[in-house]
Amino acid sequence: MCELELPNKEILYAYKKEILDKLSNVFPQNLTIPIQEAIYKKDADKLKDLLCKVMINSISCFDYADEAFYHGMLLGLLVTFDSGYILTSNRESGLGRFDIQLKPRTSGLPGVLMELKATKDQTEDLTSLAKIALTQINEKRYDSSLKADGVADIIKIGIAFCGKKAEVSLE
Questions:
Q1: What is the DSSP letter of 99?
Q2: Which long-range contacts (CB under 8 A, 24 or more apart) does 39-47 make?
Q3: Distance set, CA 65 to CA 75, 89, 135, 152 (Å)
Q4: Per-residue pLDDT tens for 118-144?
Q5: What one-character DSSP code corresponds to residue 79?
Q6: β-pairing verdict for 154-162 and 96-97
Q7: Are 115 and 99 in contact (CB under 8 A)?
Q8: Residue 152, Cβ density class (10 Å: 0-12 exposed, 13-18 middle, ≥19 buried)
Q9: How far apart are CA 98 and CA 37, in angstroms?
């Protein structure tokens, strides 16, 4: 595991132009905007439906394997939020390490924390697993760094994956 940052605006531009533009058929703007809206409105059902749509339309049944796969998929979707957020992954905060954090660049936006869980067991209850992920955010106080930076409104999201299915729990 390693952390990568884009070192300057030129690299960011190249990343957007050479990578994100080529992925626009996988993550089109008409899909990423509704994902952002579902997060802001705290609409768990809509977010679940959109994530499932992405998976059904873009991944093979041979692609998904573990939490790291889904983590990378979400990072790919969330990188489109870069104008309003600083996207970080697997950083320490509170009593542990969160999966994904969106720290607002301006005071008018909420912060977002995501904890992911994945299972290969088709019989496992994804709703319970998503709630476990949400509980982990609170128990490990992953919101500590956002609060320390003055972010008062924080959306907490637990997401569970199995194959091309997802379940979302929001607080």
A1: S
A2: 39/112, 39/155, 39/157, 40/110, 40/155, 42/155, 42/170, 43/170, 44/168, 44/169, 44/170, 45/168, 47/157, 47/168, 47/170
A3: 16, 19, 24, 36
A4: 998 889 999 999 999 999 999 999 999
A5: G
A6: unpaired
A7: yes
A8: exposed
A9: 22
Span 76-92, pLDDT tens digits: 889 878 788 999 999 99
Is 164 in contact with 64 (CB distance < 8 Å)? Answer: yes
d(CA 70, CA 152): 28
Amino acid letter, residue 123: T
Matching residue, tokens 């930076």:
149
Position 158, amino acid: G
